[in-house]
Specification:
Elements: H1 14-18, H2 46-54, E1 62-66, H3 72-79, E2 84-89, H4 92-104, E3 110-114, H5 117-123, E4 130-134, H6 143-153, E5 156-162, H7 166-169, E6 181-187, E7 190-198, E8 215-218, H8 221-230, E9 235-242, E10 250-256
Parallel strand pairs: 1-2, 1-4, 2-3, 4-5
Antiparallel strand pairs: 5-10, 6-7, 7-8, 9-10
């Protein structure tokens, strides 16, 4: 690739910006945007719409979002009246895509930070009205630490995540080899089982949107719910559970402190 290949000669337009990452987008842009990108409707995500309802809206609220990916959920939060959204993304390509979306969709309340969310939480004392952690828990090396830190940062949390179910995982030939080991462990007095998950060939994909290591640890459904309660988020509602998801069983939840 030559340096001049980085230039474009057509008049400026939003599609030009999206095409910087052509073929890597996951998200489908809102219907009125007329933009070609991905196929997943993350800008009109029913899971986030449901969470916003459980929070009695986000109008005027300050929100912390982890793993915004392509800013689809960020866009929804702003459209529902959030006062501010602090969105932290550790994947450099995803971060740059978020900045493109910020310009293309004219987001005014969102501030995107490039870095690791766990490191952010370890040093931050700021409290937020709501925390969103969609598609991130199962990418963590220590998911229990993330839950414990989230519980300190906010009293209202939305999580969408995959979870470990041995019967389901090991009945699927494409999933079973990714889970080579498990270990009983503990964090701040909470005892749980960590199931090692390896990304394997997915690491070769330019649009990879997993964690920052070659592996992560999954939790069981029971341990996720118990962990939230252990760290004080005891009012829990579950929705959008899918046992036959191609990448493993998953669910959405809203957890609140009484």
């Amino acid at each position: 690739m030559e340096v001049l290949d980085n230039y474009i000669k057509s008049a400026p337009n939003s599609q030009n910006a999206l095409d910087i990452f052509k073929g890597e987008w996951a998200s489908m842009f809102p219907g009125n945007a007329s933009l070609a990108a991905g196929v997943v409707p993350l800008f009109e995500d029913g899971r986030v719409a449901w969470a916003i309802e459980q929070f009695n809206g986000v109008q005027g609220k300050h929100i912390l979002e982890f793993g915004p990916l392509e800013a689809g959920h960020t866009y929804m939060l702003e459209k529902h009246g959030a006062a501010s959204i602090t969105a932290i993304e550790a994947n450099s390509r995803a971060y740059l895509k978020c900045l493109i979306v910020k310009e293309v969709m004219e987001l005014q309340k969102a501030h995107f930070l490039y870095g690791d969310c766990v490191e952010y939480l370890r040093t931050s004392t700021k409290k937020f009205d709501v925390c969103l952690a969609s598609g991130i828990l199962y990418h963590m090396a220590n998911p229990v630490e993330l839950i414990s830190l989230i519980a300190k940062a906010s009293d209202q949390v939305f999580i969408w995540t995959h979870y470990y179910d041995g019967d389901i995982i090991h009945s699927q030939p494409h999933l079973s080899p990714k889970f080579p080991a498990q270990v009983g462990t503990e964090y701040e007095g909470f005892n749980y089982t960590a199931y090692r998950q390896e990304y394997q060939v997915a690491l070769n994909y330019a649009g990879f949107c997993g964690g920052s290591s070659a592996f992560s640890h999954w939790l069981s459904r029971e341990d996720i719910l118990s962990c939230l309660k252990y760290f004080g988020l005891t009012e829990i509602q579950v929705n959008f559970e899918q046992l036959d998801h191609i990448n493993g069983p998953c669910f959405a939840l809203v957890a609140m402190r009484p």
